[in-house]
């Protein structure tokens, strides 16, 4: 049997179709016609002597052979994309690109950014913020800072910086503050609690940790992002729940108070980077972050 590789163009067409689940989307990504992708796939199947896709309703489904080829081709193309991006960034003396959720960026990272730039001027940090799911494997980022739960994937280096601790917070401006500040945790069961759609289990998890029946929690105004949730709490609109790190500055300034403290969760605040990365700046950034986080432990 020949040991030659399949034609690169055909393999690119296959990898894009398998990843996107659509010949049309693959054609759009590759800037070719639908027919061109179909011909490449047909050629690949003819050379292999086996089908790579079968129709599944209006879409496509990978066969066993297709699944095996997708695993290999995805890994190869992702590696190529990553190395190419590294080479391009290196040629341009690119900064260190850090991906970070917008709430963590706004409420913890940016207030410390000036100090970071003074302490690590060689970092030349560039921030990439998002409120959606972050992909630490993105070829255009050097590292990702986020809360996550183990187990950790084998292809990533995950540096644990601090455990996540969550707790309810409210403003002294809140109309129920005088009543709640001395109340036990059960005093919150009658409150219309502020919450976020990005983390619906936060209140139930906290209630369970307090030995309370989460089924009797009363949820009030919801927010799409944690940043807006905490701004609402600071404005005196109600009681919110958040990681300790994200409200540390507000607690120190008296904008928010945490009468019931914080309890640990399974999550950790971590710095993620691909194992392939050899950039020593990631280690220096991790050490700096650990030092900064000590102040809120």
UniProtKB/TrEMBL annotation:
UniProt keyword annotation of Manganese present: no
Family, per entry: Belongs to the LysR transcriptional regulatory family.
Residue ranges of domain HTH lysR-type in the record: 6-63
Organism: Pseudomonas xionganensis
Signal peptide: none
InterPro entries, A to Z: LysR-type_TF_proteobact-type, LysR_HTH_N, LysR_subst-bd, TrpI_PBP2, WH-like_DNA-bd_sf, WH_DNA-bd_sf
Calcium as UniProt keyword: no
GO molecular function: DNA-binding transcription factor activity; sequence-specific DNA binding
Keywords per UniProt: Activator, Amino-acid biosynthesis, Aromatic amino acid biosynthesis, DNA-binding, Repressor, Transcription, Transcription regulation, Tryptophan biosynthesis
Record's protein name: HTH-type transcriptional regulator TrpI
PROSITE patterns, per database record: HTH_LYSR
A biological process term (GO) from this entry: DNA-templated transcription
Pfam family, one: HTH_1
PANTHER family: HTH-TYPE TRANSCRIPTIONAL REGULATOR (PTHR30537), HTH-TYPE TRANSCRIPTIONAL REGULATOR TRPI (PTHR30537:SF74)
């Amino acid at each position: 049997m020949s040991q030659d590789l399949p034609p690169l163009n055909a393999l690119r067409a296959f990898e894009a179709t398998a990843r996107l689940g659509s010949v049309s989307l693959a054609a759009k990504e590759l800037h070719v016609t639908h027919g061109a992708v179909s011909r490449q796939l047909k050629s690949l199947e003819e050379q292999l002597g086996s089908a790579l896709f079968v129709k599944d309703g209006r879409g496509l489904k990978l066969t066993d052979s297709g699944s095996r080829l997708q695993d290999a081709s995805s890994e190869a193309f992702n590696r190529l994309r990553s190395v190419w991006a590294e080479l391009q960034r290196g040629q341009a003396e690119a900064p260190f690109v850090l991906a970070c959720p917008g709430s963590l960026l706004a409420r913890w990272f940016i207030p410390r950014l000036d100090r970071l730039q003074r302490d690590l001027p060689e970092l030349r940090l560039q921030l990439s913020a998002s409120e959606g799911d972050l992909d630490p494997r993105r070829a255009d980022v050097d590292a990702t800072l986020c809360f996550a739960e183990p187990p950790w994937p084998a292809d990533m280096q995950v540096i644990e910086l601090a455990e996540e601790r969550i707790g309810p917070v409210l403003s002294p401006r809140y109309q129920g503050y005088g009543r709640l500040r001395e109340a036990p945790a059960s005093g919150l069961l009658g409150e219309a609690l502020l919450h976020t759609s990005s983390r619906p289990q936060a209140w139930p998890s906290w209630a369970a940790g307090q030995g309370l029946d989460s089924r009797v929690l009363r949820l009030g105004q919801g927010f799409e992002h944690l940043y807006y949730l905490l701004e609402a709490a600071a404005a005196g609109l109600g009681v919110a729940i958040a990681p300790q790190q994200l409200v540390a500055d507000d607690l120190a300034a008296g904008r928010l108070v945490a009468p019931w403290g914080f309890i640990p969760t399974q999550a950790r605040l971590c710095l993620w980077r691909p194992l392939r990365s050899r950039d020593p700046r990631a280690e220096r950034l991790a050490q700096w972050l650990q030092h900064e986080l000590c102040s809120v432990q």
